[in-house]
DNA sequence: GGAATTTGACCCTA
DNA sequence: TAGGGTCAAATTCC
């Protein structure tokens, strides 16, 4: 199981998770306060930023967690080797006059990476493809993308690969955070339900809503293809199960946000934990109540609300 | 015409 | 030395 090797690293991992989850809870509380105050509701930039921050906190936590838990097919990252040289600076053969920067890279070894799975390659950021490789023992090629703002200094890159067991899904591995402003652009990501960035909770008037669940997932939260075509009967069944769970989650979210009475409802984003991951988590010692049919939300609630008891939730640390 | 993608070559890491 | 990550010229797209 690719767990970090020392007690100190486990403690550090746990600390990072707690920090990120607390940050997310705090930001969610601020967002609730913001939305409950009609005088502040007209401030979309604030709400948007808070929603982005919440999303980021959970992404970070899942990234930290996944670095310790081998969950399903996702291959999770690699611990920072700490300081190998990044560029040899050497170039042996190059035609005269040709600037040769080849070889100026290091093999991926960074803690600043995380994995997502999604039914779409899109994630709302501007990427430029710079390579594609056939990978040994992999049916599908791996595509390499970097931020379009690379030359402004943004070091964000990602690798996208179809999932062998579920080819309608893409596994995306991100490396380095955006240092450009790219991730903060595009208000539609929040204010409209946009399949391009459905991870973000969208707030808009009910009549403008499209309830199609479209969000990709940050591993290990799973979402089925929203289009519904090319789905087997089993997949259709899974989808309707997920939709039922989504409905329950939506009610609980609205209760948490205090939005129901105001008629101001978020476009719900499906955050369903895959059954396989539920089993993984259960086998790791985490059990939710037997009448709990919405494992996704409850799992997350426990992570957020019972941080003091995190040792019981993640005894493997 | 500029931006994005494709693709073969290069070269580092394991 | 094989595999994987990146480069950059050629090609395609808008």
Automatic annotation (TrEMBL):
InterPro entries: WRKY_dom, WRKY_dom_sf, WRKY_plant. SMART domains: WRKY. It is found in: Nucleus. The keyword Transcription applies. Keywords: DNA-binding, Nucleus, Transcription, Transcription regulation. Residues 116-178 form the WRKY domain. GO terms for molecular function: DNA-binding transcription factor activity; sequence-specific DNA binding. PROSITE patterns: WRKY. One of its GO terms (cellular component) is nucleus. Its main location: nucleus. Pfam families: WRKY. This is WRKY DNA-binding transcription factor 70. The lineage of its organism: Eukaryota, Viridiplantae, Streptophyta, Embryophyta, Tracheophyta.
């Amino acid at each position: 199981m690719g767990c970090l090797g020392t007690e100190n690293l486990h403690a550090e991992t746990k600390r990072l998770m707690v920090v990120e989850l607390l940050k997310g809870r705090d930001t969610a509380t601020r967002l609730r306060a913001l939305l409950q105050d009609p005088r502040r509701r007209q401030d979309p930039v604030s709400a948007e930023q808070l929603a982005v921050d919440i999303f980021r906190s959970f992404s970070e936590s899942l990234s930290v967690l996944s670095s310790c838990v081998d969950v399903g097919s996702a291959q999770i990252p690699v611990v920072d080797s700490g300081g190998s040289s990044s560029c040899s600076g050497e170039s042996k053969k190059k035609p005269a006059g040709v600037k040769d920067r080849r070889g100026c890279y290091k093999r991926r070894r960074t803690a600043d990476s995380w994995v997502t799975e999604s039914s779409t390659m899109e994630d709302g950021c501007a990427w430029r493809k710079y390579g594609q490789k056939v990978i040994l023992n992999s049916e599908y090629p791996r595509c390499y993308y970097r931020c379009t703002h690379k030359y402004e200094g943004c070091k964000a890159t990602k690798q996208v690969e179809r999932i062998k067991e579920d080819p309608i899904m893409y596994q995306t591995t991100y490396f380095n955070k955006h240092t450009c402003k790219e991730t903060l652009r595009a208000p539609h990501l929040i204010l409209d339900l946009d399949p391009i960035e459905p991870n973000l909770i969208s707030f808009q008037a009910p009549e403008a809503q499209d309830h199609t669940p479209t969000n990709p997932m940050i591993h290990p939260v799973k979402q089925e293809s929203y289009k519904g075509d090319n789905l087997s009967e089993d997949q259709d069944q899974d989808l309707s199960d997920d939709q039922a769970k989504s409905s329950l989650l939506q009610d609980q979210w609205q209760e948490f946000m205090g939005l129901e009475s105001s008629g101001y409802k978020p476009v719900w984003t499906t955050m369903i934990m895959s059954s396989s991951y539920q089993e993984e988590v259960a086998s790791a010692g985490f059990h939710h109540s037997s009448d709990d049919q919405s494992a996704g939300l409850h799992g997350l609630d426990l992570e957020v609300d019972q941080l003091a008891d995190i040792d019981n939730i993640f005894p493997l640390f």
